[in-house]
Amino acid sequence: MRFPHPGQEIEIVSFKHDGSVHRVWERSTVLQTGSQSWIVGNDQVLVKEADGREWRTREPAICTFGKGQWFNTIGMLKEDGVYYYCNIGSPYQWKNNRLQYIDYDLDVKVFPDMTYVILDEEEFELHRQELNYPEHIVRKVRQGLEELLSLIHQQKGPFEADYIERWYERFLSYK
């Protein structure tokens, strides 16, 4: 399997449990592909929703996909600090020349002071029933949420001081 090299642009696609496309980020710049994580950056990227809506992100973002992790993080650089939007989802795959994962509804929004709010718990419960999430998936989703919250509390991984800024500098070097 051939992986993209740093500086190459790729598409990111999230699916729902039933295999339907959930969201597509048209292009992100690969910053690192490795045995432990992929890191990509983007700015004002076109995002396509399953319902046909399209929109552009408003600020630069650094996205981290850890190997085997049931979540991914998007660190957004805003004027008043780094905000994170974290998706609880299946571990990423490089498939069909795109980075992809299954979105399992739960999200965590993290503020610059590392306070956070868990989002879409009702959506998770609804889709859990409608899409018939198997119990082993539900366990993985909950474990992923706990692992993510632990990293936030410890300010480790993508939540370390200056992590997003350092990767943003690398992103700018490709522009």
UniProtKB/TrEMBL annotation:
InterPro entries, sorted: DUF402, FomD-like_sf, Ntdp-like, SA1684
Keyword Metal-binding: yes
Keyword terms, alphabetized: Hydrolase, Magnesium, Metal-binding
One Gene Ontology molecular-function label: hydrolase activity
Coiled-coil spans in chain: none
Signal peptide residues on this chain, from the entry's feature table: none
Pfam families for this protein: DUF402 (PF04167)
DUF402 domain segment(s): 18-156
Segments traversing the membrane: none
Name by which UniProt lists this protein: DUF402 domain-containing protein
Record organism: Caldalkalibacillus thermarum (strain TA2.A1)
